[in-house]
Design brief:
52% of the residues lie in helices and 13% in strands. It has 201 residues and is α/β, with parallel strands linked by helices. The relative contact order is 0.22.
Length: 201
């Protein structure tokens, strides 16, 4: 079984790529952002640590973490952001490694994928068997973010300037999927890469 990390800049199309892989190959796919949300549910260690750090005012009336309020607080305070990341990122990593070990023992999965924009920054380069980079031209990414998410030019610019450069993504990656064109072209690149693995209709 191969442990593969998938990363790339915002708007590069990582979700579409993973949807295709999940449909056609014997694999498990985890999105780090969704795992982080799961680990912040009431009753978890992450929930306890975050509410202790951020205070009761970060909770919604029904006792959950208000992600909007938390985002406002942490992105206005770099030190607080780092402390939150020090709680969440290790918990996500532990969760994923436990799932990886379970998948290996079960023996039913050929490919185990984890997707996150911050895989390189969070040290996954040393954990995965391969790191894949989903690339798309900047103009293509900007158009997708405007059309599909309704982002303003200012918001797009702010997000992009805080992400790794294409050069660093490529330096740390074992395989690059060029997702600037049609999805069919991207799917062909994936199929060529995974031709040794079981194809499922």
């Amino acid at each position: 079984m191969r442990f593969i990390g998938i990363t790339g800049g915002v708007g590069s199309g990582k979700t579409a790529i993973l949807n295709y892989i999940q449909k056609h190959y014997r694999c498990e796919v985890y999105l780090a952002d969704r795992v982080a949300e799961l680990l912040q549910e009431p009753g978890t260690d992450c929930f306890q640590a975050l509410t202790a750090l951020l205070g009761e005012e970060v909770k919604t009336p029904d006792g959950r973490i208000d992600r909007g309020k938390m985002a406002e607080r942490i992105f206005a305070d770099p030190d607080l952001l780092e402390r939150v990341n020090d709680i969440v990122h290790p918990a996500v990593k532990i969760f994923l490694l436990e799932r990886l070990e379970a998948a290996r023992k079960a023996g039913l999965t050929e490919l185990f994928f984890v997707e996150a924009a911050l895989l390189i920054e969070c040290g996954y380069r040393d954990l995965v068997d391969e790191l894949w980079y989903v690339y798309a031209d900047e103009e293509v990414r900007i158009r997708r973010l405007r059309e599909q998410r309704g982002y303003s030019s200012e918001k797009i610019s702010e997000i992009m300037k805080n992400q790794l450069s294409e050069e660093i993504f490529r330096q740390n990656s074992d395989f690059v999927i060029d997702n600037s064109g049609s999805l069919e072209e991207s799917y062909q690149q994936i199929d060529r890469k995974l031709e040794a693995y079981t194809w499922q209709e």
